[in-house]
Each structure stands twice: as C-alpha cells, then as structure tokens.
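Submission checklist for the structure archive. All mandatory fields must be present; incomplete records are returned to the submitter.

[x] Identifier: Large ribosomal subunit protein uL23
[x] Organism: Chromatocurvus halotolerans
[x] Residue count: 98
[x] Sequence attached
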Amino acid sequence: MNRERVFQVLAGPHVSEKAAVVADQSNQYVFKVAVDATKAEVRRAVEQLFKVDVLNVSTLKVKGKVKRNKFGLSAKPTWKKAYVSVKPGQDIDFTTAD
C-alpha cells in the first residue's frame, strides 16, 4: 500500500473516554477511517504506519446526527470508526509515527 493511501485510509485517532477504557483493558485502539476503507486496508495501514502486529480489526459506521439550526434541519456527515487490536506487549504511540 502506498503512503498516500495510508493517510487517506487513516483519518486519525478517535479520542474519547470509551476509547481510553478500551485501550487500557483490551489493547485496542480506535481510529477514524475513510468511509470506503476495508478492514484489510485498515490492517495494512496501521501495521505500516505504526510498525505493530494487528490481530483483529472491527469497523462500524457512525450515522451523522440531525441538528436543528436557524435555517431548519441539517445533517452531520456519516463517518467510519475502526477498533484495532494489537499483539499483547505492543502499543501505538500517536505522537511518533514513521
């Protein structure tokens, strides 16, 4: 996978309380990924970018919320989230990517 596609697939880490709990308990990391990204692409992108061994990838689509504003209703965009499990003993440091 070329470097350009790696950065298209991985939009960035998803930082939330639930993501922090999952990272501590089960050695999983949460990423925002492209809506058209497959599990295999996410696996290759994480392995190539962070130099870790990925055990499992689970993806889900987060439906955009409908919000009300002074012009009526608008919808936030739908996005995709990936839970990535890495081998025990390995971790991902988001501050230092290759």
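[x] Structure attached
Curator remark: The mean pLDDT is 93. The chain has one domain: 3-86.
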